[in-house]
Amino acid sequence: MKVSLRIEQLSAMVCKPYTHVWDCCCDHGFLGQLLLEREQAGCVHFVDVVPALMQQLEVRLEQDYSRHSWLVHCLDVAQLPLDKYTDDQAPQLIMIAGVGGDLLVDLVTAIRQAHPGLPLEFLLCPVYHNYKVRRALAGLSLGLVNECLLEDKQRFYEILHVSTESAEPVSAVGDRMWDFSSAVHQSYLLQTISHYQRMSGNPRQDVSAELTAYQGLLPDFVCS
């Protein structure tokens, strides 16, 4: 199974076994299948709202992963039935990647509100709006487990692993992920600052907080 660098990195960031892992907005289910092959979960749940995709995925899982434990759910990610799988009170891992930042925030918020007492972990890779996503995660009392910045096919991605049980704050602009000795990281920071500088020219959009926060990383960039 050939997968993208982004999917490989997401899989690599699952560093411990889980009883239940939810591969949400899973499309072809590549991420969840990697975890099945690595036996990182007692059960992998594949979730998407598109019936045709889930039917095709179920056929492929029956052919290639019949010896593994998995379930296919055709439903809205905001309605995950997490309460049905809490017998051991171990944290469940919810993976959401490849969706816009606004939708991702809506989904994580809905899940947290629906299950306020459950120990949960989220592995997230938003498309755009990373600053907004990070601020929202902090507001939902989710702490940082790990984070990563990578470039895949000339696009930059931030990957965030957060948990209800972590006390480490989620930085609005990233903390652990930066390596300013890397040309990729340097390029991403400069590109992000340029993006907010362009947006600041629109009087109807106040991005002063975002611009100040990313510009605050420049001293570390210069000293690297």
Distance between the termini: 38 Å
Mean pLDDT: 94
How large, in whole angstroms, is the Cα Rg? 18 Å
Report the β-strand fraction as a percent range. 25-35%
Give the CATH superfamily of the largest domain.
Vaccinia Virus protein VP39
Largest β-sheet summary: 7 strands, mixed
State the order of secondary-structure elements, H for helix, E for strand. HEHEHEEHEHEEHHH
The CATH topology label of the largest domain is Rossmann fold
Basic shape: globular
| Number of helical regions | 8
Structure write-up:
The chain is α/β, with parallel strands linked by helices. The protein has two domains: 5-177, 3-Layer(aba) Sandwich (Rossmann fold), CATH 3.40.50; 179-224, no CATH class. It is built from eight helices and seven strands, in the order H-E-H-E-H-E-E-H-E-H-E-E-H-H-H. The chain has helices at 5-12, 30-38, 51-64, 101-114, 130-139, 183-199, 208-215, 218-223; strands at residues 18-24, 41-48, 70-74, 92-100, 120-127, 143-152, 155-163. Strands 3-2-1-4-5-7-6 form a seven-stranded mixed sheet, with helices on both faces. Helix 1 (5-12) crosses helix 2 (30-38) and helix 6 runs antiparallel to helix 7 (208-215). The longest helix is centred in the last third of the chain and has 17 residues, at 183-199. The termini are far apart. The mean pLDDT is 94.
